[in-house]
Each structure stands twice: as structure tokens, then as C-alpha cells.
Amino acid sequence: xxxxAEQVAALQRQxxxxxxxxxxxTRGSTPRETGSKMVVTAExxxxxxxxxxxxxxxxxxxxxxxxxxxDSQTLEQYPLGASLGQCCGGHVSVLFExxxxxxxxxxxFGAGHVAKVLIPILSELPVRVKWxxxxxxxxPEHIPSQVEKCLTDDPVGEVTQAxxxxxxxxxxxxxxxxxxxxxxxxxxxxxxxIGVIGSDTKARRFRQxxxxxxxxxxxxxxxxxxxxxxxxxxxxxxxxxVSIAGQMIALYQAEQPASVSPAAADWxxxxxxxxxx
Length: 277
Fold this sequence. Notes:
elongated; MoCofactor_Util/Proc; Xanthine dehydrogenase accessory protein XdhC; XdhC_CoxI; Xanthine_DH_XdhC
């Protein structure tokens, strides 16, 4: 069993949404003691608050909270009698702390040399990576569990289906495909970042082609080519990957709002629950 503390650290690092479920008060006979915790995500649960119908109801409530886009807290009371079908007969107060997703969606197109060293770095950052290529043999045998592999004959279609505000990195082996991906992203007009690997010459040619397709200069300027931080030079795959990763970190850090505390729960009610014997 994965302990709740281990999973919280991993989920926070990845920027994934989760709910911390904590028993903060008990009365009578209960399956677990005050302070027992579990973590609930959209797909998994970690640790336990005692099992049975109580845990089933708590997981269902947690997943309702996961539908929200903001941090929140709520307190629920559960009598462990006939209504929950548990023989304990006691009473449990449960605090739900919802931590909304903070990870930015990031599409990475191409599974070449740069992408292969970049993906493990990105997997440690609070971004949700979708790694796209049409060539099965290009993907390595091991892909970080938090990275979604997308093998498709229609990479451009992934751009059209991406969430608004997504970042995208165009790192393919094919200049024409790079252009099609870029043009499609610019037509959408709502991508958070469009980074294209390449030289200054490639950038100039892409800008000329886009201008011929009637893109205005303000739209063309949304393409960053060459992608990566200008003050991190180097052409080795790892050097380029670190430069790109640095740019991604700067982007999402700049977009993060000022730290805001979760919505306040009714602390007087929580205090009363904690005083229950």
C-alpha cells in the first residue's frame, strides 16, 4: 500500500488534483482513529480511513469535489449505523481538503534525440505532458508514468483537440510537419505557448510562409523559434533540452497566481468535531 504522505508529495510535484480525506473526530466505535487519512484522485485512492461503506461514501464525496477548479475544504458527518450499513454504531467527522490541479497541459511533438532527453526532465515538473509521434519505434521502452504517450498518424489533429491555453513544443524530424503543426496552432489563436525547434533560417522561412498565408505579424509573433532560452547555448541534445525546460519553467512560474489559501471551512464546526470524545 502506498502511504498517503508519499503520494501527496508525488501529486504536488506533478501538479495533479487530489483530495486529502482526514478523520478529525470520532464518537463511539469507529473503524479508524482520529487523524487517519487517505488521498483520492480521479482514478486512484491511497491509504485508508477504514474501508466499508464509510470509505465508499468518502471517496464518492471526494470525487465530487475533484470536479471543481478551485481549492476548497468541507466537513462531513457520518453516523456509522444503519444508514451506512456498518455495525460500528459510532460517528465520524471527516474533513475533505481539495487541492485543484496546477499543472499546465503540454504537447510535445516528436520523439527524436532532443525529446528523449527532455521528456524525463519535464516529467518532474508540474506540467501534464502528452508526447506525440507517428513512429512507434522512436518511443523508448520506458516512459515516465506521468507522461501520456500518443502514437498517432494524425499529429496535427492533436493540436485541434488540445485544451485552450496548452503549451506545445514542436520538435519533429520533418520541417513540413513542423510548419503544419505551427500553422494549425496559430489558427486556433488560444494556445498558451508555441515553441518550434530550429535555426534562425528555419524561423525566417516559417515567418515568410505564414505571412503569405495572410497571418498578421501579431499572430506570427506568437511562434517562438528557435525555442529555448537564448542565454543557455549549445547544440547537444541535453543542452537544448535543458534550455527548453528552463523556458517552460519560466512560463508556468510567470502564470502562477499569488498564493491563495484554500476556501475556508467552518472552523467552529471543525473545532466542535475535534472536541467530540
